């Protein structure tokens, strides 16, 4: 699984998505993250086709939506995602949110897909430690990945440590906090020091935390800039400064509400 990918949330115009995927693949990205609820899997598939990059070179993640959960429903949802993406397999399929009444049967369906070798890896999204502890009571396959919101402004070191202990790869979404903290003074000071943008510093922070990181953008210049983070490394002191910015700033729901 690539360490840095393109997150595809839900931009207003659908044709933005296919262009963004093509630009990302041309830039060097090889991880594309989408979900059925984003209603843009068709555009992701079109962007991959237009890029000319072979399917085997691209790592594609999608997620089963909240209204698709349950055993039979999840199996159908997976088939529909494949059809929309114009592919015959996913590299990673996730439970999008831990819906109380359906998450057990949904996980059982993902294990079926995995055991039948229809998907290369399965995992969860927005699972905090109580959700994972419950999952381990009935799972026979350890989730390969747990994707959750993570930035210096929503820093969960205990969840990161728990995932590592259980051999689950943590993946952070909304690393750029949807632009809300672009002008933070600490962030700007560190970015100036490295002659990088504040967004590049946020991405680098996630990578150095051991996260797979999936910043979202449909702007070609920003997509390229977000990938230009391999030529510098944040010092331990700067990492600690960024860690100290935690203020429980969320741009998505709190998984504990589920």
Automatic annotation (TrEMBL):
**Binding residues for substrate, per the UniProt record?**
96
For this chain, one GO molecular function annotation is:
oxidoreductase activity, acting on the CH-OH group of donors, NAD or NADP as acceptor
Positions of the site: Lowers pKa of active site Tyr? Answer: 63
Q: Which family does it belong to?
A: Belongs to the aldo/keto reductase family.
This one is known as Aldo/keto reductase
Q: Does the keyword Repressor apply?
A: no
Q: Determine if Oxidoreductase is one of this entry's keywords.
A: yes
InterPro entries the record matches: AKR, Aldo/ket_reductase_CS, NAD(P)_OxRdtase_dom_sf, NADP_OxRdtase_dom
Pfam families xref list: Aldo_ket_red
Q: Name the SUPFAM superfamilies for this protein.
A: NAD(P)-linked oxidoreductase (SSF51430)
**Catalytic residues as annotated in Swiss-Prot or TrEMBL:** 38 (proton donor)
Superkingdom = Bacteria
Alphabetized UniProt keyword annotations: NADP, Oxidoreductase
Origin species, per record, is: Salmonirosea aquatica
Q: Which residues form the NADP-dependent oxidoreductase domain?
A: 4-246
